[in-house]
Amino acid sequence: MSKELLQKQANTIRFLAADMVQQANSGHPGAPMGLADIATVLSSHLNINPSNDKWLNRDRLVFSGGHATGLVYSLLHLWGFDVSLSDMKNFRQHNSKTPGHPEYGHTHGIEITTGPLGQGIANSVGFSMASKYAQNLLGDDVINHKVYCLCGDGDLQEGISYEACATAGHLNLDNLVIIYDSNSITIEGDTSIAWSENVKKRFDAINFEVIEIDGHNFSQIDNALIKAKEATKPVLIIAKTAIGKGAATLEGSHHTHGAPLGEDEIRASKKNAGFDPDEKFVVPYDIKGAFDKLIKGAEAESAWKESLSDEVKSKIEKLQNPDFDAIEYPDFSDVESIATRGSNHKILNAIAKAVPGFLGGSADLAPSNKTELSNMGDFPNGRNIHFGIKEHAMAAMTNAMNLYGLFRVFSATFFVFSDYLKPSARIAALASIPQHFVWTHDSIGVGEDGPTHQPIEHLSQFRALPNFYVFRPADATENVDSWKTAFKLSAPTAFVCSRQNLEVLKDEKAFGEVSNGGYLLKQRENATVTIMASGSEVMLALKTACALEKDGIIANVVSVPCFDLFIEQDKEYISKVIDNNTKVFAVEAARGLEYYRFADVVYGMDTFGASAPANELFEEFGFTVDSLKTKIKNDL
């Protein structure tokens, strides 16, 4: 392809992006214009099929920097995805297909919602990890695609990028190609005001092959991508670019980063490039044809399907359609007490035994989280993933693994360390990614590790997260029902489990409504009190109800294994669970402020806990039968 045609293709991308931002009077023209040359050449290397964006062996392209959104929509249109010129004219407008940052499931062709800077890098590592595991299951003749990621200076400054790329280097993910748009510009100006590290040396040190190029030289870009395809390590292509490339007077300026160029600047830029300065949102006929010729995915997918054996087809079918009803869950009826992290371990292994695509791991905490899948080997050949002490990247990588198309993947850490991964959990909720988070050591029951390790506010913050379901089971049996419920949800779920043993509730009739999020565990006629609780406090509530009854106070007990599901129930159901004629008390060894939605009084934590044995802490902070009984009697 001639240099003149390549330049015209790149300029078409530039001006589509500039027109989008100008019309919306909002957005980022600089990065799309700087990346246009790279995107043009990359188009000839991608193996994708716009008519089937779920083809398993397609190349994955992740746009880590949301500042390149104009580039994303321009490319999707030019490649033939369901993004029209009309959609681009509605950039950043309400109910459009082209929101300010690309969203998975909202716009055709978007592989994953990346959102905050750095997420996309970790997502691309996750896609690469999933493909490597798929390759080991199905064969390298079946899975042999590449994972590409476009990122910028901001992505690499975020700590999550180091966590993720260190993992990629450690696992030697040789199908991963990260293209770094090195324009040395951020919102405040030149990157040198806050950043001076040698990126090449950083990536050399973590087992990447590093290629440095001029990001506007078509031959160098093409040669780098060819070399990357042949690499035996993950690859970082450092492409030196000018932000706002092609802008008449603003090329290289940080002023192109996050604001429209202005009508006069765009007109002058188009004129300099030989485009009609009075036309907007123009895709010349020869340019659309040139991009159409690059995309041969339909033929590639057809040939790939024909190459699959019946055995491989059967494996893929089972992975893509897991039978969660086939799981033989453990029976805890003869167990007196067990920590929910312990019962969770048995449940995880039962799931893995029945569901071949179920895998996951912990942030260096499997012995404490109880998340090891017994006798199932270590990733990438087995199902136990050793993420290392990298909670944020772990969650982002796992988001991508769950969207790969074959697997259901969990991640795990101590509940207090969920702080490190909150941005990735939020993206999972926003994009309805069915990741399962396992968070143990759920309260002041952590004990001797002290207040730095006792999650006080965490239940409240995750219950406040839309489309995110937090399960805090009261015992092993409720834990089983929580997992059964989670598999029916098309959203992320978290299992918040205890460190300490919890008594197993023996009355099987008490269960069966965990799917409603909350239910009557103990109901008495003429009750004047309702006690609500989750997790370890449910048994406390039951015992307190018995103690109150001896004093002539009749109490119902409501278990709330999933507050998020409970608040979704209709008023009729909630009124059956919470008797309006009773005074409602809630008890939780955490902040618990969300219970005021139903409760008249909440007994929770007002401090960060303390360092002492768990039993002493429960007594110190009033989570005992005598203390709770006295408080309720005083507050009636």
Descriptive notes:
This protein is α/β, with parallel strands linked by helices and 636 residues long. The chain has three domains: 3-301, Thiamin diphosphate (ThDP)-binding fold, Pyr/PP domains (Rossmann fold, 3-Layer(aba) Sandwich); 337-499, Rossmann fold (3-Layer(aba) Sandwich), CATH 3.40.50; 508-635, 3-Layer(aba) Sandwich (Rossmann fold), CATH 3.40.50.920. Helices cover 40% and strands 14% of the residues. The chain is built from 24 helices and 20 strands. The strands form five sheets. It has a six-stranded parallel beta sheet, sandwiched between helices. The protein has a five-stranded parallel beta sheet with strand order 1-2-3-7-6, sandwiched between helices. A five-stranded mixed beta sheet has the order 16-18-17-19-20, with helices on one face. Strand 17, helix 20 (537-550) and strand 18 (555-559) form a beta-alpha-beta unit. The longest helix has 22 residues, at 3-24. The radius of gyration is 27 Å and the shape is elongated. It starts with a helix and ends with a helix. The model has no long low-confidence stretch (mean pLDDT 96).
